[in-house]
Design a protein that fits this description.
Blueprint (H helix, E strand, L loop, with lengths): L3 E3 L4 H10 L5 E4 L5 H7 L6 E4 L6 H4 L1 E3 L3 E5 L4 H6 L7 H8 L4 H4 L4 H7 L5 H8 L3 E6 L4 E5 H4 E3 L2 E2 L5 E9 L6 E9 L10 E9 L5 E9 L6 E2 L1 H7 L9 H12 L12 H14 L2
Length: about 290
């Protein structure tokens, strides 16, 4: 491979590197689990890689509580997520990470990389969308702008990020207090991990002491051009008693989830199969 690398160690150096290369062709590298295979398939002439691996900034590298919620730095690895005590209360995220690739890859693959790759099949991206997470974007002038992850993905492998921006962190807002949590990640594929999902469903639903659903977040992957937050399905559940849902309620919920699916047929599965599987797993969680 033939490319030039810049390795900033401070945020100031990083911002300067972004400014200095605005007129050139550059990409960011962190865990390199996606970038290296891409470059092996098609080398980009004159490419400059801004290497983030040596960056020393806790906003990028740490997971910590704040007044707004739990912040996950973009350079946090999947292994870091699994070992963090604050994130254990989100089974949807933990299960998504556990379904992600191999143990070895999880130790270098980053949360920011999974988000910025913008794959419609992104496991961790799907979980974070279900949790109502917000992206925190660093601009070359040092300012931060925030974009809900529901608006972060604009198409297959495209995001709202501009050339003078990069993802610094993602915020999971504080959740409402709950008596019970129904939370998980279902991935349908040929194998449990090391496999791109044929269809996936991330869900995080909470109830009060009477079983009334007080919050609901669900998202789907691999069934549209982007990860989709299934808003009408979530709204349908609010106010209902989790323990008194009828078969009709469960089927209506699944029907609402399917409104956000527009799957394709490819070598791995047909559009019909993806539709049917998604409906079945959506109904099954309730």
């Amino acid at each position: 491979m033939d490319f030039r690398t810049i390795s900033p160690q401070t945020t100031e150096e990083l911002l300067e590197a972004i400014k200095q290369n605005q007129g050139k062709h550059f990409r960011f590298g962190a865990g390199y689990t996606d970038l290296i295979p891409e470059l092996e398939m098609q080398m980009e002439n004159g490419l400059i890689v801004i290497n983030l691996a040596k960056l020393k900034d806790s906003n990028f590298t740490s997971i910590f509580l704040s007044e707004d919620g739990i912040r996950i730095g973009a350079l946090t690895t999947m292994t870091d997520v699994l070992s963090n005590k604050h994130l254990q209360k989100f089974p949807v995220l933990i299960e998504a990470v556990e379904s992600f690739a191999s143990v070895q890859i999880r130790s270098v693959a980053t949360v920011g990389g999974n988000l910025c790759t913008a794959s419609p099949a992104g496991d961790v991206s799907c979980a974070l969308v279900a949790l109502g997470a917000v992206s925190e974007i660093l601009i070359a002038n040092g300012q931060i702008r925030t974009v809900p992850l529901t608006e972060f993905f604009t198409g297959v492998k495209t995001t709202v990020l501009k050339k003078n921006e990069l993802l610094r962190s993602v915020l999971i807002p504080h959740q409402k207090s709950a008596e019970r949590i129904l939370s998980g990640f279902i991935k349908i594929g040929n194998r449990n991990s090391m496999e791109i999902a044929l269809a996936s469903l991330a869900y995080h639903i909470t109830t009060d002491k009477n079983g009334i659903i007080t919050s609901a977040g669900t998202a789907v992957g691999s069934v549209a051009e982007t990860i989709r937050y299934t808003e009408s399905a979530c709204e349908f559940l609010l106010g209902k008693n989790m323990d008194q849902l009828s078969e009709e309620d469960k089927e209506t919920f699944a029907d609402n989830v399917l409104k956000y699916a527009n799957p394709i047929s490819d070598i791995r599965a047909s559009a019909w199969y993806r539709h049917q599987v998604l409906w079945n797993i959506s109904k099954s969680i309730l």
